[in-house]
Amino acid sequence: MQSVAILVLGLAGMAFGWFVYSKFIATKIFQLDPDFVTPAHELNDGVDYLPTNKFVLWGHHFTSIAGAAPIVGPAIAVYWGWVPAVLWVTIGTIFFAGIHDWGAIWASARNKGKSMGALSEDVIGKRTRALFMIVIFLLLLMVNAVFGVIIAGLFVSTTTAVFPAWSAIVVALIIGQLLHRNFNLTLLTVCGVIALYASIYVGSQLPIPLPEQMFGMSANGNWIIILFVYAAIASMLPVWVLLQPRDFINGMQLFVGLFLLYGAVLISLPDISAPAFNSMVSADSPSLVPLLFVTIACGAVSGFHGIVSSGTTSKQLDKEPDSRFIGYLAAVGEGSLALITIVAVSSVALAATQVEWHQIYGQYGEAEGFESIAAVFVQGGAQLLQNGWGLPLGISTTLLATMVVLFAATTMDTGVRLQRYIIQEWGQIYKVPLLNNSILATLLAVGSCLLLAFGAGGASGSGGLTIWPLFGSTNQILAGLTLLVISVMLIKLGRPARYTLVPMVFVLITSSWAAVIKLIEWYQEGNWLLVTIDIIVLVTSVLVILEAASVISSYRRDNQVSEAP
Prior knowledge:
Blueprint: H1 2-29, H2 39-42, H3 54-66, H4 69-77, H5 82-109, H6 116-123, H7 126-157, H8 162-180, H9 185-205, E1 213-214, E2 217-218, H10 219-236, H11 243-268, H12 288-295, H13 303-313, H14 322-346, H15 354-360, H16 373-389, H17 393-429, H18 438-457, H19 468-492, H20 498-525, H21 528-563
Antiparallel strand pairs: 1-2
Helix pairs in contact: 1-5, 1-14, 3-11, 3-13, 3-14, 3-17, 4-14, 4-16, 5-13, 5-14, 5-19, 5-20, 6-7, 6-19, 7-10, 7-17, 7-18, 7-19, 7-21, 8-9, 8-11, 8-17, 9-11, 9-17, 10-17, 10-18, 11-16, 11-17, 12-20, 13-17, 13-19, 14-16, 16-17, 17-18, 19-20, 19-21, 20-21
């Protein structure tokens, strides 16, 4: 019954955010204009800039930002207890994620769909753009590497997810062609979801494992290579061919998945076996503050969302008021996914008693007996579905594993595309025409991700998750910097900026604190790769903050002079 209370309180808070708080921001702060001509119309090229139905664009945006992070982060953070995790997910969704994600779409759309890096030049200054783009590129590098490792691990541990995961690509390609020919969206949605769930049933009966050793690598390593080959191809296709329809179908799949999971909780009324606050943490585990706030990024607030918002979503925005529906409501959807994840890994569905739960969560970041932390969610969620709806455990496991894989793969598609954009922008900034070539830029993006995945994780790539703490702190630092850009823009427009400045200060303090803690730890371990990346991110972020402070100070001084009698 405790699990129902968690969901009800969390969803009630998010409902307040959508119906009350976001309406206030829309009218008083962002002042959305239905007559504003968005970049999708002004710069329509049929490839990246394309006016898109808000429901289809919501599906693209949501599944691009969701990935595996709102599952993996909360599943790890429950180690400190379920109460801190639930509070941060709920409060973070209402006052942090919704404003951050939506604000990035709004700010970018108001500036010809520029990415957050390019936008920082207009809002703060020329030097800021180069600094900002370094942080963005490093974050995308980590996102793609981490998610590639997570998907590969699930393909190895849950071989029944392989068939439906790849079948979804075929379904999306067909729907993309039909949508481009103006077929009925509702009919295509129904047919697409039916086809996807039919493939899940077939997959549950048809496991597809790779050989344990092939081409001198483990199955895990081979899956990582295959995934990045796919991501490279997908990232170069026009958005309407694969990205939009796949994201939309995945979004519909999430609705079904959330309905099944939330319904299972309401039917079975499971108790919580995890402690509210874990008093049995291992001696070497990090402290709750500040690590909680970087462990749960997606699901509370995430810098990666700002990259997606300004990198692809803003270029497809049909009308400016759609930005609230797409940006804020997608954050609410992700918060809902994080909430049910917390229940799945905290309830008796995963462990019947608190003793059993402690055996699974023996140490921070570890779940003994599972291939990866994502598999903890799959295991607990599948048991919930079996207890609540009576679904066979095999089908439930395949369904949830496929859901995680599809979200993570969609994020990889978008992430590699955004990395290509940045490399091409560098080519334009520094007058290197070769980098403007989309094929070369994509190869450089994919090659750097593979270097990090295998460099941090060895020949199998399985240890690539060692970069997760670095991903968390870098991700949140970027979220703070994105809120900083939005705040400066609001100040220049003469509008109240405290609704973005307060979250910005909190996020920058906690994420920088966590980055310093991990920097000391990696230095003591001699992990020079992660030490180097961490230092680059910290130094770059400080320089961006100083630049912004200088711009705000100059702007206010000039205003005072102009207003003087």
